[in-house]
Amino acid sequence: MAKFTVKNLNKFLFFKLPSAYFSGIRVISIDDHEAMATVKHKWINQNPFKSLYWAVQGMASELVTGLLVMKKIDESGKKISMLVTYQTGTFTKKARGVITFVCKDGDIIQEAIDKTIATGEGQTLVMTAEGFNEEFESVSRFEYTWSVKVKN
Asked: Where residue 148 falls among pLDDT bands split at 50, 70, 90?
């Protein structure tokens, strides 16, 4: 669907999530199974330890999970709300240079969407996003519990 192109999603960031956009987060790819975004460690998004601030990593990681949920909701043709209800994060290495956040959980969303449409009840799903440096070393890993519910 044309709506979920990299160009359109980066426009979405600018207008709807300006803090993510101005922190340097950019969507680089999305399909039915995976979403990826990058952010480069710069002065504007650093912490006092000269690495990428944890909240910027959180924005990028939530983005790649949330875009996949948004895409599946859009494809359903139904009005469905989405909300993060729980989040955890682990940091394993200083995030310097270009960090790429990846979520490969697109395949687990459809079941929750189908169930909320069929039952009208809220459903939850846990999605993971991981950040990698330019050497492909993991720097952080986040888990998000998303709640989806068909709107009345």
From this structure: very high
CA distance 110 to 127: 13
Task: Break the chain into its structural domains and give their ranges.
Answer: 2-150
Tokens for 7? Answer: 């160009």
> Tokens 């986040």 identify what position?
142
Chain-centroid distance, C-alpha 50? 24
Structure tokens at 39: 């952010």
Phi-psi region of 120 (alpha: psi -120 to 50; beta: other; left: phi over 0): left
**How many angstroms separate the CA atoms of 1 and 66, rounded?**
17
pTM score, two decimals?
Answer: 0.95
Does 2-150 carry CATH code 3.10.129.10?
A: yes
Query: Among 27, 35, 37, which Cα is nearest to 106's?
Result: 35
Identify the CA nearest to 124 among candidates 136, 116, 135. Answer: 116
Place of tokens 């189908």: 114
